[in-house]
Known about the structure:
Elements: H1 8-43, H2 45-56, E1 57-62, E2 69-70, E3 76-88, H3 90-93, H4 99-110, H5 114-123, E4 130-136, H6 139-146, E5 158-167, H7 175-178, E6 180-181, E7 187-188, H8 190-194, H9 196-200, E8 204-210, E9 216-225, E10 233-234, H10 239-256, E11 260-266, E12 273-279, H11 292-295, H12 298-301, H13 311-320, E13 329-331, E14 336-339, E15 342-345, E16 352-354, H14 355-360, H15 364-385, E17 403-404, H16 412-417, E18 424-425, H17 428-439, E19 443-445, H18 473-482, E20 543-546, E21 549-551, E22 581-583, H19 587-604, E23 618-627, E24 634-647, E25 654-661, H20 671-674, H21 676-689
Parallel strand pairs: 2-10
Antiparallel strand pairs: 1-8, 2-3, 3-4, 3-5, 6-7, 8-9, 11-12, 11-25, 13-16, 14-15, 17-18, 19-22, 20-21, 23-24, 24-25
Helix pairs in contact: 4-5, 4-6, 10-21, 13-15, 13-19
Amino acid sequence: MTSPTPPAGTSNETLAWRTRFLVVTVCAFWMVLGGRLVQLQWFSRERFTAQVEDQSTSWEEIAARPGDILDREGRVLATSIAAKSFFVVPSQLTQQPKQWELVSAIAEAIGQDADQLQARIAEHGKKHFLWVQRRIADDDVLTKLYALEPPKKGPQLFGFRDEFLRQYPQGPLAAHVLGGRDVDGLGRGGIEQTLNAKLAGKSGYRRLTLDSRLRVIEVQTDFNRAPQHGQSVTLTLDTIVQMHVEEELDRVMEKWRAKHAAAIVLDPKTGEVLAMASRPTYDPNDLTHVSIEAWKNQAIAAIWEPGSTFKPMIVGWGLEHGFIRRDESFHCENGLYRMGSRELHDHHKYGVLSLTDVLVKSSNIGMAKIGQKLGNAELFQAASTFGFGRRTGIELPGELSGMLAPLKKWTSYSTGSIPMGQEIAVTPIQLLTAHAALANGGMLISPHLVRAHRTHPTGRPWAEKPNPGERTADADSLLQQIAFQSGAVSRRVRNFSSPGILETNEPEPETPTSPIAPPSPEPHRSLNSIDPEDRTLSDDRFDLTDDRRIEPEFPIDLPSDVSQEPPFANDADSPLESPVVSATISSDVSRWLVESVMTEVIKRGTGKKARLDDYTVFGKTGTAQKRDPQTGKYSNRLHVSSFVGGAPAANPRVLVLVMVDEPASGGEHFGGDIAAPPAREIIHKSLRQLGVAPEQKPHKTAGTEFRLPR
């Protein structure tokens, strides 16, 4: 039996449906294809064009040559030379069948472990660039790397790029002033960090065309930008003076086995730093193994109680404002003096001492009596006006401000402690800057290391002294920082304007003739904020505050590890600021202190070992006990020995500070024995280097040369 034949109309309808479906499908396909082409050619054109350019082009940085650093005579302290740096292409190298052989050859050439290099390349396997060794200075290493044979056909696996290698021809000389540059060429520490923007310059670039194997086939000259090389900087340092300073510090470290040491040479008239050194030190040519101790610049970041080196500023302030007279005498109570419940001691049993001998013999009792005459408000004003408690502004990162407690926290103990250089902490550069004000006629000039044309804020050469009574913009700014917090008014002895002193039209009170009553007993206080009920340290303990002078006191709590200050702003276009210039005391008082008193310290006082035959030296010694970290009390074995002095006394050309921290060998660690001898050598060699003619005969230092105050 046969099946029925479908109607003819049904077969035609099926064929027509299939035809329409095929036509629709083909049309839809072409519409989708056309739409995709429109999308690719129109809507996504920029994206794909950028992708193609990104894959076929590369931007290569052209390094800028950092500027040189020179000393004041043009001697090179830091320079840069062209050097090759070696890189690999991990994304291609990891695909090579002989990868291990090539990595082993590279590791052998550069002196690295092959397994470590292989692991490092594998870790960055997807990257197209990886530094292996930067700024290669060894010719043998370069020869071995050049001898490596890459595949004749295939992608680039390694190569060289041109960079600049920073070199310091003098080695460790002035390392803490210069700083260094890290592997990426950034300034770290010293002038390299402070003036990084000026020294580093700006890198250029060029555009390269690459093939599918990332090989360069064209350098597109239309898109190149030439590098802007760094500017050279001239410092105030004198390399010869710096060399003498570092040699003396090395001898000090070897002889006394000290923990730290620092020395600075300053021109007191201009504020130019001629030399600055710190120990321990490092070689800026190799920053890979520099310890924290060696990195710290002791000249700007070490803080300690200055002891007797602080006394001349207090005496000068008292003379300037009429609290004491040059011909005045002080009874030093035969070595024992009670201020309230506190006993003060001198190393020797002095009787009546002239004002000159109070400083020459460094009597703590004499200074305490001067402190009683001034009072806390004037003592605070004196310390502030001479720049203590704030940074000097020298062009180095990491400078500390020292420690000066607010006036409201001072007590009757402060009245006796501050004049002796206790309850205050200073940095070497702070202390030297304050002494420079005495040596240059009373002007506090901020120290600086960059030698450039500078002008005083009033338009005169900045080393020139303003007219009496005139305040500069910088002095007014300083006045706001150090104005009296207590509202007390200073007395005046002459028409001399000094920043930070409040003027008044009220009549001056007469100087009292009766003995000054000692301050009322108060709980003992130091900057440690020690609980007055704490009896772990009794009043009969002594603090050695100066050569052969002892004093009961709590130690100031100085931080043992101070964090680095924020780095200077890297602004290549900003001009160097003019140094701050402000008045402290009159030139008459400062000359008397330098030529009559501080020269006697050298001739017959604690600074005899700083004496020179051909120049008249002036100065002051200091010895301070440090806080014992275990007991919290003053240590009998941990000291800071220091000396500040200069020459010639009649016209000071150099001022030198030497600080020796924790000398370990020998017996007594007085500043006159440890710090004065190297300071003498530095002063003598510096004067000879500067061409200062020896004095033909000893300079007169008798007090009769100067008019006594009324």
